[in-house]
Amino acid sequence: MPKTILISGASSGFGAMTARALAEAGHTTYASMRDIDGHSKQAAQDAAKYAREHDVDLRTVEMDVSDQLSVDSAVAEVLGEAGHLDVVVHNAGHMVLGPIEAFTPDQLADIYDTNVISTQRVNRAVLPHFRVQRDGLLVWVGSTSTRGGTPPYLGPYFAAKSGEDALAVTMSVEVSRFGIETTIIVPGAFTTGTNHFAHAGHPDDDDIAKAYDELYPNLMDDVAKRLADLAPDDADPSEVARQIVRVVDLPKGQRPFRVHIDPANDGAEEVSAVADQVRERFYQRIGFEDLLHPASTS
Questions:
Q1: Which of 62, 160, 248, 252 has the maximum number of C-beta atoms within 10 A of its C-beta?
Q2: 122-154 b/e with 16+ CB inside 10 Å = b?
């Protein structure tokens, strides 16, 4: 059945790839992005062109995930046009590179806002509708950095993605009795094919950053190179989009809780398997095993 889907942060990278793939699969897909008439104007035009050329239902909607009013307006626009909403893909995020100490507290707050708090704004706009219809799917685009190998100079980003994962895990059981399902998509390090590294932010405290450069010269370049060396030559970031389409198209109740797409194999999949198994056993021990699966809508 075709679904109506809203994707956050869909102007580029995984978000843009996923929007196109879901539209190709026959879904009404809203690619959200901020500042459609300015910063994201070209991305919005590219999406419209793709929709025309491929005869798919790919639409854009302005949504700044840092602004609750903008989020509320975007969700209202989707509901007004489509009449319902079935899936939300939490994809908005921003990577930063540099020694942790060189980031100011305000920078850390901004990183958490983009990668973690933004999901709360979207959920507070969407979940009331999901709860009323006793159905819905939350897809969270996470990162293997939450449980896998974590190289240096990516600490603020890793911490934020871990925060996102923690929210997703706990929220999944809190909404399951409303018939709402959760899947966490876990991409590894794709050093080519996306703009994550190219568009990454950097610390504001140049003096501290320079102090680290004295003992860790060219470290960030070395990290990027070594991550690239771990991945096979055919590593394809569009596989993330394909896996999201697969999850969306699976029947309710049969969707996996986590899906790893990790060409570098940094160990996150093994750790997550143990952690999720411990979680399941704990819920069984306390008699809440029904919360691990969405309630049926029948």
A1: 160
A2: bbebbbebbeeeebbbbbbbbbbbbbbbbbebb
Residues 6+ apart with CB under 8 A from 179: 130, 133, 134, 135, 136, 252, 294, 295, 296, 297
First-to-final CA distance of the chain: 16
Task: Write out the H or E segment, with its range, that includes residue 45.
Answer: helix 41-54
pTM, two decimals, is: 0.94
- Return the CA Rg of the chain: 19
Q: Which two tokens stand for residue 217?
A: 């010269």
Closest CA to 212 of 296, 124, 97: 97
Q: What tens digit of pLDDT does each residue of 13-40 get?
A: 999 999 999 999 999 999 999 999 999 9
- Please state, as a whole number, how many other Cβ atoms lie within 10 Å of the Cβ of residue 53: 8
Tokens found for residue 35? 């500042």
Q: Name which of 6, 5, 297, 3 is nearest 178 in CA terms.
A: 297
CA dihedral for 30, 33, 36, 40, sign (positive or negative): negative
Pure H helices in 83-193: 105-112, 118-133, 155-174
Distance CA 210, CA 198 (A): 20
